[in-house]
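Observation: inputs received (chain + iron/sulfur cluster).
Thought: call the complex predictor directly.
Action: predict_structure
Action Input:
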Amino acid sequence: MDYSQLQKECIACTRCGLCRTRTHVVFGAGPKDAPILFVGEGPGYHEDQEGVPFVGKSGQLLDHYLGAIDLDRSKNVYITNIVKCRPPENRDPMAEESAACLDWLREQFRIIRPRIVVCLGRVAAQQLIGRDFSMTRQHGQFIEKGGVWFTATYHPAALLRAPDKKPEAFEDFIALRTKIRQVCPQAYE
Ligand code: SF4
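Observation:
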């Protein structure tokens, strides 16, 4: 299945109960061959309204960090979420919702073939890096799985609530730039 077909099927998805309360499925955005994949936990209010990941204040903050290390969602970064439909009141996705939705992410992964995956927030990190992942202790660290490097940093919405964490997040992005230069320098060409 190619990207367009996958997107078409995903936006009609009814595999979990979140389909009943969503306005739009937020499939993802960015080049289909981006070497760097960012994964958040799920769409918020503005994303649900627009059908685009990371818009509003969280999105502006993410774009600020991306720009600081010469990344751009229109050039070298693809952005999506663990669940593609907004959990009501922005609660964490339930286990069965994440499980139902992960097949879409697996298919995106198969098509995009990223070299680096950046989890935004605890929910994504615990799904993609490890059940016991601790953001406080492990943010900014890289682990390799099957030739792909995984890391995690604070979710931009969490940084808006706790701005004292912003310097740590910035360090994570600096470490990401170093890793990109090591494993996929073409991202900067
Ligand atoms: S959250 Fe995922 S699995 Fe659930 S309805 Fe939306 S696209 Fe389908």
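Thought: report the result.
Final Answer: The pocket of iron/sulfur cluster is lined by residues 10, 13-16, 18-19, 25, 83-85, 97, 100-101, 104 (CB under 6 Å). The longest strand covers residues 148-153.
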